[in-house]
């Protein structure tokens, strides 16, 4: 009997869905983004190969899941992120986030986010150094920080930014602008990625469409992004209505930062998300609401990463309280006759 | 109530899968008789319960239809000679599709004999009391012909205090490839309805519903045209979906009710019979004969002449495959349907009362099966497929660490009836159903030794 889909097919399709995002990142940020994508993916793949060799298991590169980790990791990093740090992030993502747990299927948290969380703590400056989108000459020259040497003092990009600045660029992401300067960026700029941010998180519309492709092919549970969005709106809306000038609108929350990428491609990672529909709703609502709370009241401007990691960690717990109702075990149906 | 039904997709259960049907090649073919094999093998245990006890001795001549074994207990049935011939051996151990060897009566066929059934005692079922009817059913040696092979008379005697008010007749035939029930419904409609009448009378049931998957609407039409006016029998089309023919799910599809976990349909006043069983009862009881042949669908790409054959019980599989010119090299032979049937290790097994189909696979039909097995990626496809709403993902992980006790206590392992839906949809190609079979066997053994 022929079967419908395989793990390889699912993973390959996620890669297909990520490729337009990579292409957009390269178009937006130039060869620095391209180099970053290649380096993290290569680093992830080599790490996987290395750990397979260490543990004497057959190499699992062919299932494409490690390519997803590599691509996603690059998309969550600033485009001018030093390449050597990208390689470290890739090693940590796959090594600590995946291989040490037993490889595909056994990881507790999303490997790409584990890698990103590590570099966020290890390289706080580099990971918050933003460069403008659509800088002139982006296809012929690297952002200076990209080629920084390992363990040397950080390269200052301020001068480079100044010389390349597109109108009014301040080196801050829309979330930072909102949080610290109360400047709200236009939703249409957020939709089409006309803003600063991580390499692949800025074009909300494109991310949404790529995620929708996966959902339509039934390779991603649509409930997860739906639940995340619902969670965001449910928490952000009351604050916004209470004090519109202090708290941004739910729409801004949905379109800014890494929320769209996180909801569509990282929260929806099958391995780290609950099994049942009820569990998935709980999980998504948790991510959405945590993200907004971190953004509004935390020290960081962005909260998606930690929200997803926390929810990943809670998944076994969510699973255990949302077991399906087994046929013939009550629920009122027997009484009906 | 009506309000709720608006939202319930009519006549179906939730979850399940849609495998390719592969029924085209045999659905239109009339039932044909298969020749008698030169040697017949009648296992004494081809049903659920206790083995039958042989009544014949080696060297003895038997007439086709003659009882050759009596029931070995209440949950057991008699056997009848499938051919006129001479008993060659009694108690000889023969292979079975299930695995363990089992004692059988081996009969050498008299090739020149007419093979007419002379052994009968005609009677009018309408004049029998319910008790006599049950006894008459027991004498036929009838078991569930849908594949479960549970002795039919046992279901006619529900546990004390349980009253059966509804008889559900299973004409779903949800297994891919199989079309024998479809043909029986079309060609033996009258006999089938006669069988239903008997069962309703024996049980004192007021109503009967015949459930047929909606890929066999011609059968629904034929049955509706012949429904008797004096009985409350309905024929309903149900959604074509696997495993619609599982009795608990068919009950849910037709009535909206659920059989309690760990219970049987009798617990909610329902008895379920297969259409083929009904047609055979309708034929055998009035004549006072025993079950000596059944309709078997022989199909799959490895068969030159697929079809629905009337096969004598005890026909060796090897003989049957020769008759249909099966390609016996590089292929797999499944007894029953491909989803729940048994892949047989030997061509020397016999066609028994519970075998509804013989499917001969060539490798290209099974592309998915030799794919590598990946770890569970928690995609939840199995949860969305399991018709009993179990958690096959969790069960599979527990099986991986051999925590069989927890599978049973916390995750309802024993509710699983091994329909194979979870294995079918698993993108990681994990043989979940196999794991669950092993887990159940281990638990059973642990209980027995404790």
Question: Describe it for me?
Answer:
The complex is a heterodimer of chains A (337) and B (450). By secondary structure, chain A is mainly α. Chain A contains 14 helices and no strands. Chain A is globular. Chain B is α/β, with parallel strands linked by helices. The radius of gyration of chain B is 22 Å and the shape is globular. The longest helix of chain B is centred in the C-terminal third of the chain and has 18 residues, at 432-449. In chain B, the strands form four sheets. A six-stranded mixed sheet of chain B has the order 1-14-13-17-15-16. In chain B, strands 2-8-7-4 form a four-stranded antiparallel sheet, with no helix packed on it. Among the domains of chain B are: 10-27 and 125-287, Rossmann fold (3-Layer(aba) Sandwich), CATH 3.40.50; 381-449, no CATH class. The interface between A and B is large, with 34 and 48 residues.
Element layout with pairings:
The complex is a heterodimer of chains A (337) and B (450).
Chain A: H1 7-29, H2 31-55, H3 65-76, H4 83-97, H5 111-122, H6 158-164, H7 174-181, H8 187-192, H9 204-216, H10 223-242, H11 250-255, H12 259-266, H13 277-297, H14 304-321
Chain B: H1 2-7, H2 24-27, E1 31-33, E2 39-43, E3 53-54, E4 61-62, E5 67-70, E6 79-80, E7 85-94, E8 102-109, H3 130-140, H4 152-155, E9 166-171, H5 180-187, H6 189-203, E10 207-213, H7 217-226, E11 232-238, H8 247-255, E12 270-274, H9 275-287, E13 293-299, E14 307-312, H10 317-323, E15 331-335, E16 342-343, E17 357-362, H11 381-385, H12 392-400, H13 404-411, H14 421-425, H15 432-449
Parallel strand pairs in B: 1-14, 9-10, 9-12, 10-11, 13-17
Antiparallel strand pairs in B: 2-8, 3-5, 4-7, 5-6, 7-8, 13-14, 15-16, 15-17
Helix pairs in contact in B: 3-6, 5-7, 6-9, 12-13, 12-15, 13-15
Function (chain B): Part of a membrane-bound complex that couples electron transfer with translocation of ions across the membrane.
Binding site for [4Fe-4S] cluster 2 (chain B): 386, 416, 419, 422
Binding site for [4Fe-4S] cluster 1 (chain B): 376, 379, 382, 426
